[in-house]
Design a protein that fits this description.
Blueprint (H helix, E strand, L loop, with lengths): L34 E2 L7 E2 L7 E5 H7 L4 H5 L5 E5 L7 E4 L2 E3 L3 E2 L2 E2 L16 E8 L3 H4 L6 E7 L7 E9 L3 E12 L2 E15 L10 E15 L2 E14 L27 E16 L4 E24 L5 E28 L2 E22 L5 E5 L13 E24 L2 E20 L3 E23 L2 E12 L14 E15 L3 E13 L2 E3 L7 E3 L2 E16 L2 E16 L15 E10 L8 E10 L2 E2 L7 E2 L2 E11 L4 E8 L7 E6 L2 E4 L4 E9 L1
Parallel strand pairs: 7-10
Antiparallel strand pairs: 1-2, 3-9, 4-5, 5-6, 7-8, 9-10, 11-12, 11-39, 12-13, 13-14, 14-15, 15-16, 16-17, 17-18, 18-19, 18-20, 19-21, 21-22, 22-23, 23-24, 24-25, 25-26, 26-29, 27-28, 29-30, 30-31, 31-32, 32-35, 33-34, 35-36, 36-39, 37-38
Length: 688
């Protein structure tokens, strides 16, 4: 959900196949992950990829009780929450650039929509991966700052079950569970069912409303022969929540002492659902050639009936409001066909990938709101509710359709011992249909055809075994899905990145570090229309320069750590709408995190675990006009757990122990989500 109270406990690993150094799908044992599939779509060691890829393993989610993706990503450098879209979903800034979608098991979600209609549930997440920089070669579309990929829990042949009961501050209640095992008496077919239900009032005074989410995810693994593997994953999420914009900015600042104030009405509401169904089939044609086919279908909808802030009165004592009603539905299908070949030529070892992707994304939105019949204002400092909803008048209608055809090729070449080349390129052909209508403006139905080229090249050099040095050049291509007032064919966004870095094993197979320095340039950027926040404008160019350091792993037996530091200079470099030199929205100049736990390994106190950490975020501007600023903050967290035996665990987590007042997610003048006050969550886990 949108506030910091959502920090309930993710479940422990039920079964682990392989070791932490061998399994690219997770879950990883401990805080260190060493391999990934998402970075190159091949099983590759992180140290052999010329890209900063940060992984938050499931054990971190367990210890921190992270059911918000937001909280998991605080562990990664230069990643910040960028807005909850009025409590409906989640957006993030990666290396300074906003992203409103993510990938699941390497498949991008919502290709034809601006955001997910529901808040992601973490119950079925094995690990969270952040692929820094452009990844268009593999994924076709996406922000140049990076892509978030969520790897799901796989079914296991060993029968197991796990359930977690949680409760905490602000009437937080959650139950989640998972069961897994072989089906029909054969290990060739295994299944898993994961589910979660959550209900909370939150620290925000929501006029008597509560936020609720229900999630279920059946999955199956079928291995009809040693050479063939089929994985089926379906996910269904339903969400009922308040429409919560947070706090407005007042005289260049956000009044965080009002962090509990809500400016909606008891009848304001948001309902959304998001569903997906994926089939991934792999077949080893021989020892050198593998065929992979993926089909992924997504569908969902949402409806809003709520008040929205439009400004403050002259005395800054009242919040002016309007009524907004929105109906939207979206659906898409994504297919990927790939061949992976391993071979030697001229004494060089190759891992080559050839792929074709087809995407058909459809979105239809119909919205209406009061026009000339605004809502009654509400007190900024002491809101009281009971305003009647005015009659709705038509405002706008929008239809978008996108078809994308992508062909991509990649080669990983071992040029010499310790020297590797990664090169690839992708060609995309996109056809977009766009039509919109408002009370004062109508755009005729229009088709737009786009061509995009996304190259990537990088080198990795290991001068000594524990150290990898790398450099890379990458580009991104992203067709616009923003609603631009009066424009039927907005140009696509383009990004370019230059990156150098180093990856080192501080303690072999236990503790690793990644350092990176980069420059990213982005053009044709969609930004909020300063004259009408319901629409977007296409701005000029933006640039982000930065450095970052991430460390994760085990220092001593039972002593784990995950830490990060980032520094960013992200600003507008060319534009006619906004001032050149302004900093980008919600991007801090510095950010960092540190989290460490220790679990007693033997003796009378065996089974007791404890940990603590801090999150630090520098000051940020709340919009591209830089009209207001939110201050820096430091948040202190801690945990205590006790493994009663191999079947039961008790845990208590505290977040924001100093009860600091701060803005967690600035978005615009009227949408700024404050951080939660001191919050405590207790849990009981049962494993069988």
């Amino acid at each position: 959900m949108a506030d910091g109270t959502e920090q309930s406990l993710a479940l422990d690993t039920i079964a682990v196949e392989g070791t932490k150094t061998d399994n690219p799908y997770g879950p990883d044992k401990g805080y260190l992950a060493t391999r990934t599939v998402s970075g190159t779509k091949t099983d590759t060691a992180l140290r052999d990829i010329p890209q900063s890829i940060q992984i938050v393993p499931r054990d971190v989610l367990v210890d921190q009780q992270d059911t918000r993706l937001t909280d998991a990503l605080f562990n990664v450098s230069n990643v910040q929450p960028a807005g909850t879209i009025q409590g409906r979903s989640q957006t993030f800034n990666i290396r300074g650039f906003n992203t409103q979608t993510y990938a699941i098991d390497g498949i991008m979600m919502n290709p034809a929509a601006n955001f997910s209609p529901v808040t992601l549930d973490m119950a079925n997440v094995s690990r969270v991966e952040v692929l820094k920089g452009p990844s268009s070669v593999m994924y076709g579309r996406g922000e140049p700052g990076g892509i978030i990929n969520l790897v799901t829990l796989r079914p296991t042949a060993t029968p197991s079950a796990e359930a977690t009961f949680q409760g905490g501050s602000f009437d937080f209640k959650r139950f989640q569970g998972t069961v897994s095992g072989a089906m029909f008496g054969t290990d060739q077919l295994t299944g898993r069912l994961t589910f979660a239900a959550q209900d909370e009032a939150t620290f925000r005074h929501l006029a008597g409303q509560k936020n609720q989410r229900y999630y279920v995810a059946p999955s199956f693994d079928w291995n009809p022969s040693p050479d063939t593997r089929v994985y089926v994953l379906s996910q269904f999420t339903k969400q009922n929540s308040a429409y919560d914009e947070g706090l407005p900015a007042v005289n260049g600042r956000v009044p965080t002492f009002l962090r509990s104030n809500y400016y909606g009405e008891p009848w304001s509401r948001y309902h959304g659902q998001g569903n997906s169904f994926m089939v991934r089939a792999e077949h080893d044609i021989n020892n050198q050639l593998m065929f992979r086919q993926v089909v992924n279908a997504q569908w969902g909808d949402f409806n809003v009936y709520a008040t929205r802030a439009t400004g403050l009165n002259a005395d800054d004592t009242l919040v002016n409001r309007r009524l907004s009603a929105v109906l939207s539905n979206m659906r898409s299908i994504d297919t990927q066909t790939e061949l992976i070949a391993k071979f030697d030529t001229l004494g060089l070892k190759h891992t080559a990938l050839l792929g074709f992707e087809y995407i058909n994304g459809y979105r239809h939105a119909y919205s209406q709101q009061s026009s000339g019949n605004t809502m009654a204002s509400i007190s900024l400092y002491n809101p009281t509710y009971g305003a009647a909803a005015p009659k709705l008048n038509f405002q706008s209608d929008l239809q978008q359709t996108m078809r994308m055809y992508g062909t991509y090729v990649q080669d990983q070449v071992e040029l010499a011992p310790g020297l590797q080349l990664l090169a690839g390129v992708r060609f995309d052909a996109v056809r977009q249909f766009y039509w919109s209508r408002t009370t004062s403006n109508s755009v005729k139905p229009a088709d737009q055809n786009l061509l995009g080229v996304s190259p990537r090249i990088g080198l990795v050099y290991r001068p000594i075994e524990p150290l990898s040095l790398y450099a890379s050049y990458t580009k991104s291509f992203n067709p616009q899905t923003a609603n631009v007032l009066g424009q039927s064919a907005p140009p696509p966004e383009h990004g370019t990145q230059y990156e150098v870095g180093a990856k080192a094993d501080l303690i072999p197979d236990r503790l690793s570090a990644t350092f990176a320095a980069f420059i990213i340039q982005k053009t044709n950027v969609a930004a909020t229309d300063p004259n009408n926040s319901q629409y977007s404008v296409i701005t000029g160019a933006q640039e982000s320069r930065g450095v970052e350091l991430d460390i994760a792993g085990e220092i001593l037996s039972g002593w784990n750590v995950i830490a990060s530091f980032g520094a960013l200079d992200a600003k507008i470099t060319s534009d006619t709408t906004y001032q050149v030199g302004n900093r980008l929205t919600g991007v801090p100049d510095i950010n960092g995190s540190f989290w460490s736990t220790y679990r007693i390994q033997e003796g009378a106190w065996k089974g007791i675990g404890f940990g603590a950490g801090v999150v630090f975020v520098g000051r940020r501007y709340g919009d591209l006009n830089n009209s207001f600023v939110v201050g820096q903050y430091a948040r202190l967290d801690a945990m205590l757990s006790y493994d009663i035996n191999e079947h039961y665990r008790l845990a208590v987590n505290g977040r924001n122990l100093t009860n600091a007042y701060y803005v967690e997610q600035p978005f615009n003048q009227f949408n700024n989500m404050p951080g939660a006050p001191l919050t405590v969550v207790g849990s009981l886990i049962a494993r069988f």
